[in-house]
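Reviewer 2 asked us to include a model.

Predict the structure of this chain.
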Amino acid sequence: MVTAVAPLEIVPRYEAAFRAAGFHPGLVTTSTLATLNLVRGETAVVLVKLSGRVLTLSLSQRSMLKLLRTIELADGTPEEILGHLHPTFAYAEDQLATRPERLLVCGFNGQGHEVVGVFERELGVVAEPLRSRFGTAGGHNAGLLGCLEFLERA
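Predicted model (structure tokens):
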């Protein structure tokens, strides 16, 4: 289980737009936490999710979240992203005593295949697009697909 905490005075600011539109917010979560419903496996898995200039890296093992980082990128090049992936892999090796065996890639739009190849060569790991039973997850729909996946299993 993962718990995200925000100061009570902050949450209404984010809910205000929804309330003004006539919606009553219920569950509020970050898209990456919802996206983690799409990550399965017994081994260590790294998810690299790009949404605009925001990069989110997560490390999970046996479907348990071990590390979550969100970073605003300067230019979003594969080299800049690799600069953040290398420490994530080092953390896995140091703290989990294992090397991640898979890298799930999400939100790279038309660059997905090119980026996957760069990551596989540089990190020596199998990289693949993040998928759900509803389709390939992108930078802006991965959280929704993760919620739908969760609801399908519930």
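The chain has a mean pLDDT of 88. The chain is about 35% helix and 25% strand. We have added this to the supplementary material.
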